[in-house]
Amino acid sequence: MTDSNSSGGQDYRTSALRAIRIEREAIEALEGRINGDFTRACEVIMACKGRVVVTGMGKSGHIGNKIAATLASTGTPSFFVHPGEASHGDMGMITPQDVVIAISNSGSTSEVVTILPLIKRMGAPLISMTGNPNSVLAKEAIANLDVSVAIEACPLGLAPTSSTTATLVMGDALAVALLEARGFSAEDFAFSHPGGSLGRRLLLRVSDIMHSGDAIPKVFEDVSLSTALLEITRKGLGMTTVVNTKGELTGIFTDGDLRRTLDKSVDVHTTAIRDVMTRHGKTIRADHLAAEALNMMEELKINALAVTDENGQLTGAINMHDLLRAGVI
User: Fold this and answer.
1) What is the pTM of this model?
2) Residue 214: is it exposed, middle or buried by C-beta count within 10 angstroms (0-12/13-18/19+)?
């Protein structure tokens, strides 16, 4: 029987581990290159009045697309322009207010070098990411980010592997440095990702999903326990809020409170809800994040919260099922 890990003497694991080791070493080498050029690149981008335009050919172009996307989603407006298309009309997408990041491992890719005079002529600052600091591209740039590698992970030394990984990591380092310099927050990130789970967690407010108006389970303090139970059943939130004559929240009665009350053998028809409710139950404001409501419920091991305003007036109710339906959980 043939070993599934080998074929014709080839050890797949050895090859894979070698590739990982080479690429790891390429990444480690980048630490010594976070220098004055890197700082200069950050300063130029921070001062940019337009957008960051990333360009690159072949595999560098694929990496450039990702770098542009990462910059855009972390607070630095950015997009990718194919250098070949730039020579055939897409140069019109670049303005003097933009900053151009040109990527080329050799620093002499013809499609990129062709558009350098046009970029320089319009006055857009040029940042390069190259594996050759003595190349045409590196010398034309106001800052060159050195992404050179000792060897490619490809044993033939042909397929871009270590070099593209190093470029990608340098792009991430640039994006993160800019993110922190801008004070970019998790909520800012969510605005760039409104359709994802993070967006739902960081953009949804309690007011967006709470029950309000007649949908709020609510009884007055002097009603009987049996009346409160009917309200819980009608509204279907597993709880009812309890208010005084001024509409101020004074307590909450939940399914858990009911179980504890029945253990005391009370008369549901004669016992007032104020005598068995939980006083000063936990509340949340409508303008708080839905994720905060989730964290509070999980921490306190409860399934529902009353929503009040700054004056203690009841404005809504929310439970764990509401958060689940909204995709916050």
Assistant:
1) 0.64
2) exposed
